[in-house]
Write a structure and sequence with these properties.
CATH topology: Glutaredoxin
CATH superfamily: Glutaredoxin
Helix content: 55-70%
Order of helices and strands: HEEHEHHHHHEEHH
Shape: globular
Radius of gyration: 19 Å
Number of domains: 1
CATH class: Alpha Beta
Strand content: 5-15%
Number of helices: 9
Largest sheet: 5 strands, mixed
Structural class: alpha+beta
Distance between the termini: 47 Å
Length: about 210
């Protein structure tokens, strides 16, 4: 029994020693060419690519929220709605419309919940106008923001990021425009964030 415990302790110690030895191609992928990013001086961009209709993104959300409370100071975090299909574009426009209207903080989690816990089918602009009206946004205001030039530009940028980043699914993280991470390679949501922190620290020391 003692031998087994010692062997287990040795295994854990070995794992801890190598936990930061993340390898490109195994734990994350290098994006070539790198995406352009804009951050404040001394900051490193970490983008989460997600889709409201994705159950894994919904599962990831509490982990992201907890991480944001104590994320490293050098990280500048942003969410980017991935766009792979028409219904993804509809949700991307809704995200940016909510941002423009100043209600994103109170509707982001609510939309995830409506889709996945309440099983509501919110996949058209009309459905979404009704949803946001329930959260204090006049349907007219939502539709104007949804169809606005600013939302159109941001949605097109999200499409470009989705395409150029080379992600194969969501949720995904893009660090410094140079690296992409997935749960498949990282192994868990928590590990994906730890790898992102490691890569961000690496970029800060470049």
């Amino acid at each position: 029994m003692l031998k087994a415990l010692l062997a287990c302790a040795l295994l854990l110690a070995t794992h801890a020693a190598t936990a930061e030895d993340y390898v490109a191609g195994r734990h994350y992928e290098v994006i070539e060419p790198a995406l352009e990013t804009q951050t404040a001086d001394g900051k490193v961009s970490v983008m989460e690519l997600f889709w409201y209709g994705c159950p894994h993104c919904y599962e990831f959300e509490p982990t992201i929220e907890a991480w944001l409370e104590n994320k490293p100071e050098n990280i500048e975090f942003a969410r980017v709605p991935a766009v792979f299909a028409r219904n993804w574009e509809i949700h991307a426009r809704a995200f940016y419309a909510a941002e423009q209207l100043g209600v994103l903080d109170k509707t982001h989690e609510a939309l995830f919940t409506a889709l996945h816990r309440e099983r509501r089918r919110l996949f058209t602009p009309d459905d979404l106008a009704t949803f946001y009206a329930e959260h204090g946004v006049a349907e007219k205001d939502f539709r104007e923001a949804y169809d606005s030039f600013d939302v159109d530009n941001k949605t097109r940028r999200a499409m470009a990021i989705t395409r150029k980043s080379g992600i194969g699914g969501v949720p995904a993280l893009i660090v410094a425009g140079r690296y992409r991470l997935s749960t498949q390679q990282a192994g868990s949501y928590e590990a994906m964030l730890k790898i992102a922190e490691h890569l961000a620290a690496k970029e800060s020391n470049r």
